[in-house]
Design the sequence.
């Protein structure tokens, strides 16, 4: 299966995107300009549609949103499981995850 698109994990806290997520979109833009790929924001958690719209307005081309009670802020296991399932299904060429505590917990398992 071919790899395509650059995914950016949009980390949230209390239904709002963390600033580092938008910084990650900026990094993805630089890569995308060289690879001609789309930037896909991946939002897992409550308030996902609103956060996805913010990510698109900041430069993501599209967004994948997964919402549900089990994805509350800080539930790294549930978020990682959802992210891994999506990555296996869609096969992104790159994944960018911010260097926060949650990001460091999620990244090695994706």
Sequence:
């Amino acid at each position: 299966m071919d790899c395509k698109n650059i995914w950016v994990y949009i980390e949230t806290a209390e239904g709002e995107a963390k600033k580092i997520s938008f910084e990650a979109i900026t990094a993805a833009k630089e890569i995308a300009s060289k690879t001609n790929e789309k930037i896909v924001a991946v939002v897992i958690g409550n308030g996902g549609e609103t956060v996805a719209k913010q990510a698109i307005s900041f430069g993501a081309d599209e967004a994948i949103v997964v919402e549900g009670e089990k994805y509350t802020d800080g539930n790294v296991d549930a978020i990682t499981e959802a992210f891994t399932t999506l990555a296996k299904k869609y096969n992104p060429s790159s994944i960018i995850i911010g260097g926060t505590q949650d990001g460091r917990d999620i990244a090695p398992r994706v």
